[in-house]
C-alpha cells in the first residue's frame, strides 16, 4: 500500500502542446443553433469521458480524423454564448474549432491510481483551465510505458451521453477509414406544444432556480470521486436475488443493481432522516420517436434526458428484500419511460423559461439521494482510433458541487459481462459500498496491465 501511495504522490503531467482543430469542410454557412427545452434543462456542465490504451496515437493522424468528424458534427466546433435578448445560451456554428491538448505523464499506466479519481483527474488528465471556452476539449496523454489516455470533455449544452456516444463512435470509425454508421440530426426540434400543459407532479421533481442556488448547493460533506470494477458473477447474483418473487416482471440488471445500492444507502445515512430518494436518468429518444417507429430519433444530437425519482422510507429499505426494492425501482422508472412524460416535461420547461432549471435532488433539496445512470449502450471496446482497443473507458465530472450521490455504470472494455462504475459519493456511502466484494476499487490488475 505504501508503494501505491508513493506512486500517487509523484504522479505528474506536463502539457506539451495545444492546438485548435477545425472541421475540414465544406460546412453549412455560419448560423445560430437554438437550444431545445431539454438542452436548457441539462445546463452547461462539463461532462468528461476518459479512455486508456496500451499504445499511443499518431497525433497528426488523430487530429486529421477529428477534423473530418467535425464535418458531420459541426456544432461541436462552434461556440456557445449567452443570447443577450433571451438570456439563454445558443450555439454559434462558425467552426471556431475544438481544443486539443497534448501531455505526458511521468509514470507507466500500471502505476496510475485508477480508483481515486480525485488524485488522477483534476489538472492532470483533465485540464481545469477554461473548460467551457471550447464546447469540445480533447486531451491526449502519453505514459512512460508507451500507453496513452484520451480525455474528452463536452459542454452539456452540446448533448447527452447518447449524442456524445454517436460523436465518439463516428470519430473512431473515421480514424479506422470506415464509413460512419450515424447521420447526425442537428435539428434540435423538440419544442413545446401550444399552449404548454403538463402534469403537476413535475413540480415535485424539477424546479426553477438561480445561479446563486446552484453555486451554493448544500453539501453535507466533501464528495469523493471513485472508480469501481464489478465482476459479472456479482451482477448475476444481484439479478437473481432481485428476481425472487418477481417472476411475472422482467427485472433488469440495472434495476437489481439500483436496489442493492439503495438498500446500502439506507443503512449508511444518519438516523435523522426517515426517507431517502433514488433517481435514474432516462433517455427519451425511443419514447419520442413515434409510436409506430421508435428509431426516428436514434441519431438526434442534443439532450433528450429526464429524471425518474423514487422515494422510500429508510426502515422500508432496511427491512425489505432486494426483490421488493427492485420492484419499487421498476415502478419508479416506469413513470418517466413514456411519450406523455417527455411531452409534459418539454412543456414544463417552456412554462418556466427563461432561467435556470434543475431536478430538486441534484440541487440538494430532497435530503439523502443517489442518482444512477446506465451507460450500457455507450461504446467502450468499440472506441479504437486506429491504435488499438481501450483497456478502460468510463466517465466522471470536474463539477465540485452537486447535492446528490451519483453512480454511472457501463460495460467493461473486456466485454465479459463485468461493469465499470464511476462514482461521486459521500464518504459514508463509499465505506458502505466497500463493505463486501461487489464494489472492487479499480486497479491495474482489473485492466490486465
Name some characteristics of this structure.
449 residues, alpha+beta, seven-stranded mixed sheet, six-stranded mixed sheet, 14 helices, 29% helix
Sequence-ordered SSE layout with sheet pairings:
Layout: H1 2-10, E1 13-21, E2 31-34, H2 37-42, E3 46-53, H3 59-72, E4 79-83, E5 88-93, E6 98-105, H4 117-120, E7 136-142, E8 148-155, H5 161-175, H6 202-205, E9 206-209, H7 211-215, E10 224-230, H8 232-242, H9 253-268, E11 275-283, H10 285-288, E12 305-313, H11 314-319, H12 322-334, H13 339-352, E13 356-359, E14 369-374, E15 390-396, E16 405-411, E17 419-425, H14 427-433, E18 440-441
Parallel strand pairs: 6-7, 11-14, 14-16
Antiparallel strand pairs: 1-6, 2-5, 3-8, 3-15, 4-5, 7-8, 9-13, 10-17, 10-18, 11-12, 16-17
How would you sum up this structure, described in words?
- It is a single chain.
- By secondary structure, the chain is an alpha+beta fold.
- The chain is built from 14 helices and 18 strands.
- The chain has a 7-stranded mixed sheet. A 6-stranded mixed sheet has the order 1-6-7-8-3-15, with helices on one face. Strands 2-5-4 form a 3-stranded antiparallel sheet, with no helix packed on it.
- The longest helix is centred in the middle third of the chain and has 16 residues.
Q: First CA to last CA: what distance?
A: 18 Å
| Overall pLDDT score | 92
Q: Give the DSSP E fraction (strand runs of 2 or more residues).
A: 25-35%
For the secondary structure, the number of strands is 18
**Could you describe the largest sheet, including whether it forms a barrel?**
7 strands, mixed
Instruction: Kindly name the structural category.
Output: alpha+beta
Radius of gyration over C-alpha positions, nearest whole angstrom: 22 Å
Reading side by side through the largest sheet, how are the strands ordered? 12-11-14-16-17-10-18
- Shape, per Cα inertia axes: globular
Low-confidence stretches: 1-8
Q: What count of helical segments does DSSP give?
A: 14
Helical percent range? 25-40%
Amino acid at each position: 500500500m505504501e508503494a501505491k501511495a508513493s506512486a500517487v504522490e509523484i504522479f505528474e503531467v506536463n502539457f506539451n502542446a495545444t492546438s485548435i482543430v477545425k472541421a475540414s469542410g465544406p460546412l453549412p454557412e455560419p448560423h445560430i443553433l437554438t437550444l431545445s427545452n431539454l438542452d436548457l434543462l441539462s445546463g452547461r456542465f462539463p461532462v468528461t469521458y476518459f479512455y486508456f490504451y496500451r499504445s499511443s496515437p499518431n497525433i497528426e493522424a488523430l487530429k486529421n480524423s477529428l477534423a473530418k468528424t467535425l464535418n458531420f458534427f459541426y456544432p461541436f466546433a462552434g461556440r456557445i454564448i449567452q443570447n443577450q435578448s433571451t438570456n439563454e445560451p445558443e450555439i454559434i456554428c462558425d467552426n471556431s474549432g475544438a481544443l486539443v491538448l497534448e501531455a505526458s505523464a511521468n509514470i507507466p499506466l500500471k502505476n496510475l491510481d485508477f480508483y481515486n479519481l480525485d488524485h488522477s483527474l483534476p489538472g492532470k488528465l483533465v485540464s481545469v483551465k477554461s473548460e467551457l471556452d471550447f464546447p469540445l476539449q480533447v486531451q491526449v496523454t502519453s505514459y512512460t510505458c508507451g500507453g496513452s489516455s484520451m480525455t474528452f470533455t463536452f459542454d452539456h449544452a452540446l448533448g447527452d451521453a447518447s449524442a456524445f456516444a454517436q460523436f465518439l463512435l463516428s470519430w473512431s470509425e473515421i480514424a479506422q477509414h470506415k464509413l460512419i454508421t450515424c447521420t447526425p440530426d442537428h435539428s434540435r426540434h423538440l419544442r413545446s406544444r401550444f399552449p404548454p400543459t403538463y402534469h403537476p407532479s413535475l413540480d415535485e421533481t424539477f424546479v426553477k432556480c438561480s445561479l446563486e442556488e446552484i453555486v451554493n448547493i448544500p453539501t453535507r460533506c466533501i464528495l469523493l470521486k471513485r472508480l469501481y470494477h464489478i465482476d459479472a458473477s456479482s451482477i448475476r447474483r444481484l439479478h437473481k436475488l432481485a428476481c425472487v418473487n418477481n417472476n411475472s416482471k422482467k427485472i433488469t440488471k440495472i434495476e437489481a443493481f439500483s436496489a442493492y445500492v439503495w438498500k446500502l444507502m439506507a443503512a449508511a445515512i444518519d438516523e435523522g432522516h426517515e426517507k431517502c430518494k433514488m433517481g435514474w436518468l432516462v433517455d427519451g429518444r425511443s419514447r419520442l420517436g413515434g409510436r409506430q417507429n421508435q428509431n426516428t430519433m436514434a441519431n438526434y444530437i442534443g439532450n433528450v434526458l429526464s429524471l425518474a425519482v423514487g422515494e422510500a422510507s429508510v426502515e422500508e429499505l432496511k427491512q425489505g428484500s432486494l426483490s421488493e426494492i427492485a420492484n419499487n425501482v421498476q415502478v419508479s422508472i416506469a413513470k418517466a419511460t413514456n411519450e406523455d412524460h417527455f411531452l409534459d416535461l418539454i412543456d414544463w420547461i417552456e412554462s418556466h423559461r427563461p432561467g435556470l432549471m434543475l431536478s430538486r435532488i441534484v440541487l440538494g433539496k430532497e435530503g439523502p439521494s443517489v442518482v444512477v445512470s446506465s451507460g450500457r449502450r455507450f461504446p467502450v471496446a468499440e472506441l479504437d482510433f486506429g491504435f488499438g482497443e481501450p483497456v478502460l473507458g468510463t466517465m466522471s465530472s470536474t463539477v465540485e458541487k452537486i447535492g446528490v450521490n451519483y453512480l454511472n455504470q457501463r460495460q467493461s472494455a473486456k466485454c465479459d459481462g463485468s461493469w465499470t462504475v464511476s462514482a461521486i459519493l459521500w464518504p459514508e456511502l463509499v465505506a458502505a459500498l466497500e463493505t463486501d466484494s461487489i464494489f472492487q476499487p479499480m486497479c491495474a490488475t482489473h485492466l490486465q496491465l
